[in-house]
């Protein structure tokens, strides 16, 4: 049973890798299901065992690549000596944007589509999208640093949406400015987001 499951998982990952290559090479609209299975070296019927259609594959691929990215960011954060919750958020943001800036295919595909809507769609289908270890660390950090957040999920939603939209505009379009020029403003905005969602205890 274990080998069967491993084989299924491998085929799904092969299709995802092939789709990512083609979407970044040819574009989503010009890529067909036939192109994907041909690149993957699998039968066309195999595609429909895992995905409803090309659009379903695209959404799962965005979630898959984003999950890998957040996992990598979490691993790097664990190695770093970060003193505050605010610094953790800035560290994660810098890592994710740094990856987008040095990996054009990832930036073209994920930065453009990185949104809470994609995460929620996949979660509703039973998938674990935001890595559990990452989300657990986020909640633990709020507690460890005594950050009284009114809505942790909503704050994370706001941060993810901001990172995705600014990365797409500033990295891919250089609009309204380059990412390097925008980074100081992004940092200050993230600090304000944390402030907005944080309830400060009244001084005794």
UniProtKB/TrEMBL annotation:
Pfam families for the chain: TetR_N (PF00440)
Domain of life: Bacteria
Keyword Membrane set for record: no
UniProt DNA-binding residue ranges: 32-51
Domain HTH tetR-type: 9-69
Keywords from the named record: DNA-binding
Secretion signal span: none
PROSITE patterns according to UniProt: HTH_TETR_1, HTH_TETR_2
Protein name: TetR/AcrR family transcriptional regulator
């Amino acid at each position: 049973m274990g080998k069967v499951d491993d084989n299924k998982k491998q085929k799904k990952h092969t299709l995802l890798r092939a789709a990512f290559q083609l979407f970044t090479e040819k574009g989503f609209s010009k890529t067909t299901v036939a192109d994907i299975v041909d690149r993957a070296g699998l039968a066309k019927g195999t595609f429909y065992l895992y995905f409803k259609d090309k659009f379903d594959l695209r959404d799962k691929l965005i979630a898959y690549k984003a999950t890998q990215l957040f996992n990598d960011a979490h691993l790097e954060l664990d190695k770093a000596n970060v003193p505050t919750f605010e610094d953790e958020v800035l560290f994660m943001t810098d890592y994710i944007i740094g990856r987008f800036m040095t990996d054009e295919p990832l930036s073209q595909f994920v930065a453009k589509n990185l949104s809470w809507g994609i995460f929620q769609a996949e979660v509703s289908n039973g998938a674990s999208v935001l890595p559990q270890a990452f989300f657990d660390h986020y909640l633990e950090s709020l507690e460890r640093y005594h950050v009284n957040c009114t809505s942790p999920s909503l704050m994370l939603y706001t941060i993810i949406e901001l990172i995705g939209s600014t990365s797409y505009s500033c990295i891919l379009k250089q609009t309204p400015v380059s990412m390097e020029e925008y980074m100081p403003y992004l940092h200050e905005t993230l600090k304000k987001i944390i402030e907005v969602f944080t309830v400060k205890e009244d001084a005794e």
